[in-house]
Amino acid sequence: MCTAPAADMGTKTAPSGLLQLIWLASPALPIGGFSYSEGLEAAIEQGLVHNEASATGWVVDQLHLTQSRGDMAVMAQAIPAWQLMDTQRLQALNDWVMATRETAEMRLQAEQMGRSLLDWLRNLQQASDAQLQCCAQLPPTYPLAMALALSLAQAPLDQALQAVAFGWAENMTQAALKAVPLGQSAGQRMLARLAREIPQAVQTALHLNDEDRQAFSPMLAILSSRHETQYSRIFRS
Length: 237
Fold this sequence. Notes:
Distance between the termini: 55 Å
Shape: globular
Low-confidence stretches: 1-15
Strand content: under 5%
């Protein structure tokens, strides 16, 4: 007869926090992330991305130039703000996110994914009444809503950012597989490269202050504006 192994009472890691991070990083999270390529589809249309090497380079650059210096840095500051319920700080960070969305589709993504993630938190009854009331006043963009979800996991800040970065990397890799197109083995090599790059990106995000945080990526903004009127497309950005 099979018996379950005895639980290790000396384990210090809270499995609920780890599982929450895995859940939040999953592309299956019903917030619509799979609908967006964040400029990648337009880069493919313009011939800037056309194979595994160029797709990998594009996504790695985006990780370091826009994600770590922008949205991930916002989350690094918003997570403790949610834990302290510093509403003034949360509003300032949310306003910054909206101000840095340079095209209509970029703003659509930030707003739609923020709403969807807030609905997910509300449906699972994970957020407190005070947090939900604060969300109603913002309303939260995706980075602020994700920061709330991450704060509820009560995981170390660097692990929280690694989780959300890997979830982003999976979505971007899936977009490349569909749009370049690439095979599954190429996608796994892309993810392996991104997994090596994510720790450095997280450290960058953790050490940026308000003056150094930025979302300056003019080529991405140009591609996004072109994508809005692109003749044939499968993604919303």
